Amino acid sequence: MKIGLASDHAGYYMKKYLAQYLKKEGYEVIDFGPDILKKVDYPDYGARASMALSNGKIDRAILICGTGIGMSIIANRFPDVRAALCYTPFLAEIARLHNDANALALGGRIIANELACEIVRVFLETKFGGGRHLRRIKKIEKLALHRFEK
Description:
The protein contains six helices and five strands, in the order βαβαβαβαβαα. It is α/β, with parallel strands linked by helices and 150 residues long. The chain has a single domain (2-149), classed as Sugar-phosphate isomerase, RpiB/LacA/LacB (Ribose 5-phosphate Isomerase B, Chain: A), CATH 3.40.1400.10. β4 (83-85), α4 (89-99) and β5 (103-107) form a beta-alpha-beta unit. The relative contact order is 0.17.
């Protein structure tokens, strides 16, 4: 599975930590930046990873800024990206099980790296539940398609 990572300066160290964790677990990691610690704008890097996810070049995205809020907002602007801001493993599980989230937003200033690894693990291992949840996802897609057709 190809995992795209992106951050701003507030999520830089967590991104590096998660990259090592994911590689150790056998995932292919694509780092969308930044490459060095400097003040940057989260939309620039969140958009790179979200575009790759939208275009099918990666299977999942993990996006990190100070709170995760900004990254979740930019990610959800792209077609077929369903980003969830998760601070607990339970939220990550539900995001996958009920919402088929394919992007995970994390707050680098909110949670510890060890907890982030557990959230990521649950996010990547949990399968989408389908059933009534699929019907709801299709409704979301139809509404989003209408937005893009304007």
